[in-house]
Design a protein that fits this description.
By secondary structure, this protein is of the alpha+beta class. It has a single domain, classed as Cysteine proteinases (Cathepsin B, Chain A, Alpha-Beta Complex), CATH 3.90.70. Helices cover 35% and strands 16% of the residues. It starts with a helix and ends with a helix.
């Protein structure tokens, strides 16, 4: 995501470091959706794929199939090829790097399909965990060289170099594989899992575009120029709560650079500016009152940026009856809640950049306004 160095650094730390448990907050689940195992993106900037694949794993369970561990790197393999092509076509006038959004995964699912982790792990040379430093540098060097030397002027063979780098670092994506004794293509496996890419929509809430219409969200990782439906903040909250209450999970794009977001504590809080660093995570703190206007102002001045994607999997109450959202992160399991975090309502209202959700999870009156 935008602060990919920050995200990767945290991912590396939590791959290896156990963090002590906090006893300040006591949570009781209210709605908890069945999901797959917690994963670790380790030293890669592919949270967008980890979060969205976790979301699709939950969708497979919701649709009545048995749980399956899906490949995150299958989407990365094809998305990076599309990103390289787009970067060259835009003459380098857009972001290039490991970041992306949930609709990138949904696009690959619709065009190519799904693959189980057992058929494509994206790990080569007997690697046990992801480290994309070399991959990211090689890809960026390739596309910048294409533009610098005008290699796209006479032929398109430079694309073979991109595929070659991906094959060497992730392995070639399978065209066919066997799973539970049956032979599949990625497309037939997607269909067997009952996943239809057209069922999923992106939603956000900002006042610089008309509500109940769609627009291309202006964040650097939206290199694919994907459109988001725009709704007022109160509708975003209604969509979120309705989805979780009815058993639908959510892929969540958010800002995680705030002082109140702490993986080690397993919390995401939005404290008032008067709350001191010493009191944060040591006392129950007063949080900000979020409005559409304050949310917009934070986005306009880049105080809110698209840092990281996670998987929203439920709701819980603390010992004082305050509601929190349960998120499944992709930074491993070494925090007090096994890799999950509890995000306050205020934090979610202020720091949500966008969500991807099954359109059936949207309340009927809002769906009608969106024309869905």
């Amino acid at each position: 995501m935008k602060k990919v160095v920050f995200t990767i650094a945290i991912a590396v730390i939590v791959c290896t470091l156990a963090i002590g448990q906090t006893a300040l907050y006591q949570f009781t689940p209210v709605h908890q959706i069945k999901v797959g195992e917690t994963e670790d993106q380790c030293q890669s900037g592919t949270c967008w794929s980890f979060a969205t694949i976790s979301f699709l794993e939950a969708e497979i369970i919701r649709k009545g199939n048995k749980p399956v561990d899906l490949s995150e790197m299958f989407n990365v393999y094809y998305t990076y090829q599309k990103k390289a092509d787009s970067y060259v076509r835009y003459q380098g006038k857009q972001q290039f790097g490991p970041g992306g959004l949930s609709h990138d995964v949904i696009r690959i699912v619709g065009e190519f399909g799904l693959v189980p982790e057992a058929a494509y792990s994206g790990l080569t040379f007997n690697d046990a965990r992801h480290n994309h430093d070399g991959l990211d540098n090689l890809l960026e060097s390739t596309v910048t060289t294409v533009l610098k030397k005008g290699l796209n002027a006479h032929d398109q063979n430079w694309r073979k170099s991109v595929v070659g780098i991906l094959d060497a670092n992730l392995g070639a994506a399978p065209a066919q594989f066997t799973f539970d004794g049956k032979s599949y293509t990625p497309a037939s496996f997607r269909d067997a899992m009952k996943i239809n890419a057209n069922d999923y929509v992106s939603i956000t809430s900002f006042s610089h575009h008309p509500y109940y219409s769609s627009f291309v969200l202006e964040v650097p990782d939206n290199w694919a120029k994907g459109s988001f439906y725009n709704v007022p903040l109160e509708d975003l909250m209604s969509i979120t709560n309705n989805a979780l209450e009815k058993g639908f999970s959510i892929a969540w794009d958010a800002d995680v650079s705030e002082r109140g977001f702490d993986f080690g504590q397993g919390l995401g809080l939005l404290p008032e500016s008067t709350v001191s660093k010493d009191d944060l995570f040591k006392k129950i703190v007063t949080e900000q009152n979020v409005t559409q206007e304050s949310r917009q102002a934070a986005f306009d001045c880049f105080e809110t940026t698209d840092d990281h994607l996670m998987h929203l999997t439920g709701m819980a109450k603390d010992q004082n009856g305050q509601m929190y959202y349960m998120i499944k992160n992709s930074w491993g399991t070494k925090n007090p809640y096994g890799g999950y975090q509890y995000i306050s309502k205020a934090y979610y209202q202020m720091k949500t950049v966008g969500i991807v959700i099954h359109k059936d999870a949207i309340p009927a009156e809002i769906r009608k306004k969106l024309g869905l």
